[in-house]
Amino acid sequence: MQPAPHHNLYRAFGDQPRVRILGYTTHMNELMAAADVIVHSTGGITCLEALVRGCPLITYGSPPAMPATTVEP
Hints:
This protein is α+β, with helices and mostly antiparallel strands.
């Protein structure tokens, strides 16, 4: 069984004073209003919410249902 993704983040960045690692929250509107930037995997409603709020995004990964590489015909 693999650890939850945020456990790996705690191990890597938990001692950094400028990093906040959160699990599930219902306070996204307030957090986005206070954020300097959002780091998120591509796609999903969180990216759209950040764009609507005018919060800069750093995205990684391939959008869902998109191939990781492009194949030439």
